[in-house]
């Protein structure tokens, strides 16, 4: 078990780049449609909720509601774009299109493929997060530099949710099961983790639980960055928690995918 | 067996999925430069064996060595020198022909310059020079198969593993692939191919292994197998009651097989058989030299492609 599991792992530090570049080439062919699709949903949320609810809510945690929400939307869009890229696009490459099968007949390992897919999905998160950030900065709800500061966390958030989604596709028999993950896990996280409402509004028992969820760590890093607040000591804790959320599912999904693809 | 001379060596390989035995105590060896066929009907375990050679399925028992590397432990290292033509095309449909080769070359760690240097020869080999910038989705089945073959050659492999390379192709496209594979054999490549086409196996393979339900039921050169197991003419008879006919001609035949409504009569002296059938209305009689289909029928009591 040990030896053969080790043979699944990335063979070296750069094999995954070939997988990333394959996805980039495919993306480039439909870049415009992909960008619009990526942006439309979070920007609609930002304006709809931000202006609409913002009028009722007034100020939240010492800032305007729309500035509070912009940071939440950057984190949420990083989460959803990495999740969707992995659930739907990577699943298609694994399953119907047999792209992974072709790659597995070369010198790449399953770990190389999974790593390439995760970094690719994180790249799309950066694109989506940056786009919302740019809109927020253009409207004056965040400074341009603060958007740049938020990007490393956006990328890490992308890795986390791509990695979690990789576990889902390694287990799901078909597309039909993804909706459970979306509605039972991701959507509640948006409301629990302080993306659209402050966590302080939740009952205290919920707060403890919600504070452990990956999106909460991500929001707790992105919001201070975008609102240019002092970095707290808890930042290191949030970063390590996100790293664990990215790394553990990577190992789990690679083992599960072997069971699925390499018997 | 001298390990360093064999391209592929299997010894006592077993594989089951659940309680279904897919590969049963299989051993064979493929020399370098040889074309070796795994011949058998669907479900005989051919694809499982091909995937085991690549390290994509682990055997339950037995030893596999490919290009002197133990598999699956060092399958990745072996795959650097293997080209694969899978049973089902897995090309990038939205990419052009050239992009497919580019992307695949990168998986082998080749630089763009190195890929650009080998692509023209590959396109020429696959007779796809004029399709370089065409999306794969627009190619015919035969062209896709040839591109898959060109893609398998991008790393200049020593060994090609081909799982049913011509299944689903029309006869013209199939002959073109066979002709291309012979060119590769002349160049000294080793080929392992799985097929359920007797003609393909007879035309291409230096040696082959006939499989049924994961077991090896015969192994050798195609002509030798035919000689050993049949060694006489074949008369196919359609259109009568096979059982009545077999009683009639039985004394003159070395052996008789009935499959569906066809009677296969193996006889050293076919004229004696034809005399017996003379004057019977409604019979269609075909006399031909024996082939691998007859070997399979003889060994298993059934036809392969039915």
Question: Concise description?
Answer:
The complex is a heterodimer of chains A (263) and B (306). With 263 residues, chain A is mainly α. Helices cover 76% and strands 2% of the residues of chain A.
**Radius of gyration of chain B from the CA trace?**
22 Å
Number of strands of chain B: 14
Percent helix among the residues of chain B?
A: 25-40%
What gross morphology of chain B would you assign? globular
Structural class of chain A: mainly alpha
DSSP summary, beta strand count of chain A: 2
Low-confidence stretches of chain A: none
Describe the structure.
Chain A is mainly alpha-helical and 263 residues long. In chain A, 76% of the residues lie in helices and 2% in strands. Chain A has one domain. Chain A has a two-stranded antiparallel sheet. In chain A, a hairpin with a 2-residue loop joins strand 1 and strand 2. The longest helix of chain A is centred in the N-terminal third of the chain and has 30 residues, at 65-94. Chain A is globular, with a radius of gyration of 19 Å. The two termini of chain A are 13 Å apart. Chain B is an alpha/beta fold and 306 residues long. Chain B is built from 11 helices and 14 strands. Chain B has a 6-stranded mixed β-sheet, with helices on both faces. A 4-stranded antiparallel β-sheet of chain B has the order 2-1-4-5. Chain B has a 4-stranded antiparallel β-sheet with strand order 12-13-11-14, with helices on both faces. The longest helix of chain B is centred in the middle third of the chain and has 16 residues, at 171-186. Chain B is globular and about 70 Å long.
Topology at a glance:
The complex is a heterodimer of chains A (263) and B (306).
Chain A: H1 2-6, H2 16-28, H3 31-57, E1 59-60, E2 63-64, H4 65-94, H5 99-104, H6 110-138, H7 144-171, H8 178-192, H9 204-210, H10 214-226, H11 234-261
Antiparallel strand pairs in A: 1-2
Helix pairs in contact in A: 2-6, 3-4, 3-6, 4-6, 4-7, 4-10, 6-7, 6-11, 7-10, 7-11, 10-11
Chain B: E1 6-17, E2 20-31, E3 35-39, H1 46-53, E4 61-66, E5 69-71, H2 75-79, E6 82-85, H3 97-107, H4 112-125, H5 141-152, E7 159-163, H6 171-186, E8 190-195, H7 198-204, E9 207-212, E10 215-220, H8 222-229, E11 233-238, H9 242-249, E12 255-259, E13 262-267, H10 270-277, E14 284-288, H11 292-300
Parallel strand pairs in B: 3-8, 3-9, 6-7, 7-8
Antiparallel strand pairs in B: 1-2, 1-4, 4-5, 9-10, 11-13, 11-14, 12-13
Helix pairs in contact in B: 3-4, 8-11
């Amino acid at each position: 078990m040990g030896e053969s599991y080790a043979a699944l792992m990335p063979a070296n530090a750069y094999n995954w780049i070939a997988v990333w570049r394959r996805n980039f080439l495919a993306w480039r062919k439909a870049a415009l449609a992909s960008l619009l699709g990526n942006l439309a949903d979070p920007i609609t949320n930002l304006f709809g909720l931000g202006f609409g609810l913002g009028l009722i809510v007034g100020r939240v945690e010492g800032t305007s509601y729309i500035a509070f929400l912009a940071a939440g939307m950057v984190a949420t869009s990083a989460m959803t774009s990495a999740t969707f890229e992995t659930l739907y696009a990577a699943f298609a490459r694994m399953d119907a299109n047999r792209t992974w099968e072709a790659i597995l007949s070369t010198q790449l390992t399953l770990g190389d493929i999974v790593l390439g897919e995760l970094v690719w999905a994180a790249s799309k998160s950066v694109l989506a997060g940056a786009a919302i950030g740019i809109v927020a900065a253009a409207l004056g709800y965040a400074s341009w530099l603060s958007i740049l500061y938020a990007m490393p966390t956006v990328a890490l958030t992308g890795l986390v949710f791509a990695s979690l989604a990789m576990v889902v596709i390694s287990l799901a028999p078909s597309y039909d099961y993804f909706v459970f993950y979306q509605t039972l896990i991701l959507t509640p996280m948006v409301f629990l983790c302080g993306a659209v409402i402050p966590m302080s509004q939740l009952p205290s028992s919920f707060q403890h639980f919600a504070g452990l969820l990956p999106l909460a760590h991500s929001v707790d890093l992105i919001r201070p960055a975008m609102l240019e607040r002092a970095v707290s000591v808890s930042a290191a804790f949030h970063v390590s928690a996100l790293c664990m959320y990215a790394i553990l599912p990577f190992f789990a999904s690679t083992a599960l995918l072997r069971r699925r693809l390499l018997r | 067996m001298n390990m360093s001379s064999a391209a592929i060596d299997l010894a006592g390989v077993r594989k089951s999925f659940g309680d279904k035995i897919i590969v049963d105590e299989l051993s064979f060896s493929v020399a370098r430069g040889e074309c070796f066929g795994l011949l058998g009907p669907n479900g005989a375990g051919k694809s499982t064996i091909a995937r085991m050679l690549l390290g994509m399925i682990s055997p339950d028992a037995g030893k596999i060595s490919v290009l002197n590397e133990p598999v699956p432990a060092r399958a990745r290292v072996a795959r650097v020198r293997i080209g694969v033509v899978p049973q089902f095309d897995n090309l990038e449909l939205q990419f052009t022909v050239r992009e497919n080769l580019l992307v695949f070359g990168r998986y082998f760690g080749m630089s763009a310059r190195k890929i650009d240097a080998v692509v023209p020869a590959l396109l020429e080999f696959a007779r796809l020079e004029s399709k370089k910038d065409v999306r794969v989705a627009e190619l015919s089945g035969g062209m896709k198969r040839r591109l898959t073959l060109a893609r398998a050659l991008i790393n200049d492999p020593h060994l090609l593993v081909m799982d049913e390379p011509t299944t689903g192709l029309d006869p013209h496209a199939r002959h073109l692939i066979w002709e291309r594979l012979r060119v590769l054999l002349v160049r000294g490549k080793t080929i392992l191919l799985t097929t359920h086409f007797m003609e393909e196996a007879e035309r291409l393979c230096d040696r082959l292994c006939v499989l049924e339900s994961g077991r090896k039921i015969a192994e050798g050169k195609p002509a030798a197998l035919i000689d050993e197991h049949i060694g006489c003419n074949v008369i196919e008879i359609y259109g009568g009651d096979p059982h009545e006919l077999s009683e009639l001609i039985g004394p003159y035949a070395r052996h008789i097989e009935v499959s569906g409504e066809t009677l296969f009569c193996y006889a050293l002296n076919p004229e004696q058989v034809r005399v017996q059938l003379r004057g019977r209305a409604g019979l269609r009689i075909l006399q031909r030299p024996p082939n691998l289909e007859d070997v399979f029928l003889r060994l298993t009591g059934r036809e392969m492609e039915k």
